[in-house]
Amino acid sequence: MGRNLFRGPGFVDWDGSLGKTWKLGERFNLQFRGEVFNVLNHPIFSQGSIRKNMSGSSLGLARATPDVQVANPVIGSGGSRHIQLGRKLIF
């Protein structure tokens, strides 16, 4: 076996957001935001999902993203691309 056999994959994550604010009179502002998490849709696998036992053909194969492994899908924690839009009235 080679060196660092059980070392996991790197973490590459690009997030982005755009926002625009419109002034509606003296007291009111309307804000629009668009956010994209994991822009490149690059899979990020969890270190703990790598199979470490010596049997089977999936030795050293990462199978889950960090959010899927702990059954807690949180936006921006390694899952697939997520896009969210929002608007806010500020007064």
What can you tell me about this protein's structure?
- The protein has one helix and three strands.
- By secondary structure, it is mostly beta strands.
- Strand 1 (about 15-25) and strand 2 form a beta hairpin.
- It has one helix spanning about 65-70; strands at about 15-25, 30-35, 80-90.
- The chain is rod-shaped.
- It has one domain (about 15-90).
- The model has no long low-confidence stretch (mean pLDDT about 75).
- It has a three-stranded antiparallel sheet with strand order 1-2-3, with no helix packed on it.
Strand order of the largest sheet: 1-2-3
What's the order of the H and E elements?
EEHE
Strand content: 25-35%
Mean pLDDT: 77
Percent range of helical residues: under 10%
Distance between the termini: 64 Å
The best one-word shape is rod-shaped
Task: Count the DSSP helices.
Answer: 1
The total number of structural domains is 1
Computed Rg: 20 Å
Total number of strands: 3
Low-confidence stretches: none
Global structural class:
mainly beta
Largest β-sheet summary:
3 strands, antiparallel
Task: Give the gist of this structure.
By secondary structure, this protein is mostly beta strands. The relative contact order is 0.28.
Task: Please tag this protein with its features.
about 90 residues, 3-stranded antiparallel sheet, 3 strands
Topology:
Blueprint lengths: L15 E9 L3 E10 L28 H4 L12 E9 L1
Antiparallel strand pairs: 1-2, 2-3
